[in-house]
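Quick one: structure tokens for this chain, please?
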Amino acid sequence: MNNMKKMNNKGFAITTLLYGLMSVGFLVMTLLMGIMSQNRQNTSTLVKKIEEELNRYGETETTFAYIGTPQEYIVPYGQAGWYKIELWGAKTSSGLGDYTSGIVYLAENTKLYFYLGNTCANATACGTAFNKGNTEVRTNTATETSAIMRASGYGKNSYIAGYAGSNSLSEAGSATNQTNHFSGKYFINGMIVPKVNDTYGKANVELVSKGGSDQYPTMKNLKLSEVRYIKHCSNGNTLKLAEIQAIDIKDGKNIIKTLATSKFSGVSTGTINDGIINTSSSAVSSCMQVDLGAVYNLSELAIWHDYSSSTSYKGNTLQVSKNGSTWLDIKKNDLSSTTAPSSSSGERFTPWQADSTVEFPSGRYYIFSITNPSKVLTAQNAREITAPNKANVTMETFQGSKLQKWTIERVYPNDTNLMNKSGWTSTPIYRIYESENNHALQLADGTSEIGENINAAKPVRNYEWDLWQILPLGNGTYKIRSLITAGANRFVYENSTSNVISYTDTSSDTDYRTRFRIVNAEY
């Protein structure tokens, strides 16, 4: 019995011990479950915050719509690089809003503020509307002078920091007659298209090239690298030069404005390098030359002739040199060709646009009218013609849509299927596709009658219906010639009244409706 009692005592002790351990375990489990429950709540909150931050800072393309208050944009973490910013001014009593765009370097966590223009019907309404119809991007919300880009809606001119011809303001608001902005931010490859937007202001920001501030987007024309001397000649015709500007790629500053008179030859200074774009001009009897004083990499080179009489200057050239003896053609005309009439927009050349003195490079482009600077070649899918998957091609108001972007692809002499076409030389031949549906520019139904409309449709292989030559005219403009018959002079032709695109057999250099500006749309 004593043994049994001992066993019972031991059993009770063991049971008590086990019960105690189980109780402790239960308490520990209860505590852990409470902690885990709280952690789950904390974790859920943390995950939600992380997701919000990722959404906020992970976007490298953002579109802004009008809301009537400033809108903040923060450059994503780890996404420093070159950003394309596009602005559309609002439609106001002054007319349609302008479009502006450019590429600017932004470090991570940089903050920008977008002011989108409100539509307004008269001067009183525009005076009280948010930002008076103008769309701007600013570096801060405190002052209007912090705007580094503006698309005009009402009462102000469109402006791009670092863009040749721009008159930047000081922080105090006074005109500097310089292109660089006091914030240090400036744009490369700027573009202004007047009177295109018929609604509220809008904006778009997109990362186009990652890297450091000295790692620029891919250039299409390297002739503006390492430039010290600039020469502008008239081939015997007297020119009236109103302004010339060369923009330093490092800071968006017009180098020529600060040059001494001794750096110029062949022209009197004073008005041509004062930074003010107007019709006050100096005569250039033969050649004008500028010495920048050092070698620079340029983001833009621009010239303005006296545009008060809309004069067309014939046979003038523009060249650059590193050493003053070896010259590179930036603009090249012979006496048989002519440029479009001079205007307040001037003639501009940048490293990010194709060199129009040499073979045209493949890429994605806008094809602008010469007779109307707000119109571009557009595939109108909503206007189908004789069969499905075909669309009229017209000149429409610029909006920057996919239906207005064209992929120009060199196919000859690259394509061996086309190598043996009789009568063809080594001159490059291209297909031109609209970017929305990948439909190729072609003659309507493969016909060859003069005046037939041009459409966009699925590419036709082994025929000339969708093959084109792009002929650089050396002055920033191009002709687009059909190859429906080898060697035929049939050119794309713009009817500036109806906006219809057809083709013609004219090859006259003075008919601007067979000329186009082809502007880079990718980086």
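Helices lie at 2-57, 123-128.
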